[in-house]
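Loading example: each entry is read as two labelled lines plus one structure line.
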Amino acid sequence: MSQRHPSEFPLEPERYELLGNVPPSFDLDRRAFFRLAGAGVVVALLADEVVAFQPGRQRPGGAAPKELGAWLHIGEDSAVTVFTGKVEVGQNIRTSLTQVVAEELRCPPARIRLVMADTALTPYDFGTAGSRTTPAMAPQLRLVGAAARELLLDLAAEQGQVKRETLTVAEGKVNGPEGKPSFEFGQLTKGKKLVKVIDDKTPTTPAEKWTVAGTPLPKVDGSAFVTGAHRYASDVKRPGMLFGKVLRPPAFKAKMTAVQTREAEAMEGVVVVRDGDFVGVVAPTEHRAARAIAAVRAEWKFTEQPSSDELYKYLKEHPAAGRGGPGGGRPTTRGSVKDGLKQADKTVEGTYTIAYIAHAPLEPRAAVAEWEDGKLTVWTGTQMPFGVRRELATAFGLDQEKVRVIVPDTGSGYGGKHTGEAALEAARLAKGAGKPVKLVWTRQEEFTWAYFRPAGVIEVNAGVRKDGTLTAWEFHNYNSGGSALATPYDVANVHQEFHGADAPLRQGSYRALAATANHFARESHMDDLAHAVGLDPLAFRLKSLKEPRLRAVLEAAAAQFGWGKAKAPEGRGFGLAVGTEKGGYVATCAEVSVDRRSGAVKAERVVTAFECGAVLNPDGLKNQIEGAAMMALGGALFEEIRFKDGKVLNARFADYRVPRFRDVPVFETVLLNRTDLPSAGAGEAPMITVAPAVGNAIFQATGVRLRSMPMVPQGFRAP
Amino acid sequence: MDIKELHVNGSARPVAADAERSLLSVLRDDLDLTGTKYGCGEGRCGACTVLIDGQPTRSCQRAVGDVAGGKVRTIEGLATDGKLHPLQEAFLQAGALQCGYCTPGMLMAALGLLSRDPEPSHDDIARALSVNVCRCGAYARIVAAVEQAARVMKGGDK
């Protein structure tokens, strides 16, 4: 059997946290009855029991199940339950996915409930990553809704003894021809399982005709969040539950040489759990667990390692084995960069650096684990419930069927919760203690033992003619990643390459991956080139930009901003940038103020134009765009992880600066709704042009080109 | 020394808690009032904000023994008789949340502000909530929601 990753999309090299963790895929579902039935044939419409679908079973290559009953159930009370392995982490897919089902099922959204990310109930899912929910899960659930609608018509025709063509579905009912009664959904399905193979050709509603999808439906379950009623993983409580803490090494790569736990064991109600190098405690309160872990005495052997001060030199001097490093990455070459540079009137060379940053989700990693009769149930906040199930099954030598992972709507992730550290630790502690255990990472643990956005070095060398024609473009990314590495601009001579490095810190996926770093370098450099030949940055870009979707967002942002209409006032600058990632097209225009005396730099106004095909929920989309821009300002201006001797030096919110109320610019957002194009995800792409737009504005305000992310961690300092 | 009683959301609740424990932990773990969140344990994110005698307080930084006879109000005490508070309504209307983890702390900090200043300016709101972090970046909407709630409340917390 091939070793294909069960992902629904090719994995980018910078998803380091998932590498070395790639399982073989198995065809576990040998009982699937529909293969006998033949695709597209309705054998029976309803069934009394679960005859076929085994929730959470992984299909070859991660293929989605075809049985309607796996995805959707209609209760006797006509309530609709939809099952999806996707996770709600604040991107509001619970809402947008509800909308697409409501649209196809012709049913009020309020009657639909999504069961999400429970490995015992939902179909297998690779994970909530890569902006894949909207382009992959939303069409799947549209099909599901449409298939259920067609099934309801079949049932109504049969039960009402009327011609199917005379029936319509609207407002959550099947309506008969004039004079005939209408049918409630539940009346037709009687709470039984819907038996039908989903036909990929079931007609779905085109975006131009949407009435529920495409509208600004408010957050589903919103009131549970504003009342505090919603239970995140860290809020789950189980009978007899204890609180856990885990002993952490004082530095990365430190090895334990001795440990003494007598004092901790002597504390009332405390149990020490040891399993090789793993040492943890459980106690009746978190306070006592914290005191107990502090009482554990351990000795450590330390390993010398680089610090953040020498990070960029280190990354360049320590290439990873194999071309392109982990995940591969082939260079793209066209023409000859050498010749192209010779043809140029001006050449510009620059080295950009990208610091490590932390996701810092406000809900830290958390899990509650419970063992019962050799079966394990874990409630945890993760973006990959099935991946965490696999981690747990592997760690404890269990069949995956014996492990259930339940992910309540989670206190954000941003790509930082693809792994199951807290789940594994809580399960170990619960096993050792013989009681359910809750483990919530402290902020310091989250800042230290989670993975970081990869740091990197980007070297660019480019040539341009006086008329703005690009003649050469050479671009090398060391370690930060390959996403959006290729330039969208027209250049005859190109060499672009990703180089993996033997990185000093644990690193992995972060919202928008390296598209942020690569756009920062590229769009800053484009600005330099425009400046070198005295052209306006907007006109210069448009000259070499063929992709109409990129041109459209760039022109829309510029028009909204009033680009070229006025000069920036003293102490301020304007900057713009454009790019694409994960099917989203985005341009940002920023106005930034720089106070040369205090060093204060602030984004005053951020205009974003965004296009991601047909918009599922315009208000949810605007919320994502503003939020992504806000988060991106942190990485652009001041966020960075500093480390030395294997220790993070700023593992607290007091020392690690995140965007706050005082950093909020005026947001203006232009949505280009392309109902003629498939919907793409939008949680990531709106980030990517913020840093270069801000950097370009700082350049205009000061004449100083900042080539590091973050640009002004200590405020603006003129060189 | 143990704490035997805590005044929360209008009633005296019996507890049996070590006085050194944080108010946050006693609210969440002993009284099952889990709407108040842990975010940092250093008083720098505001997720644990509750009101004590009307004052926004970081409950992760307050030992339960130091609450004494103070009256604690948590997010669970904001809606009354199943009716959402204007602040809660405004947050929903403005879509002023994404993952929602910061929301209870934001709401309690905003409630504290509006009870001492019913007509805050944009900057007053940003200042009053300066400790509170929304990592999803819904800040602009949160300010708009607080302004909207202030307009609805027209001069005082009802």
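The mean pLDDT of chain B is 95.
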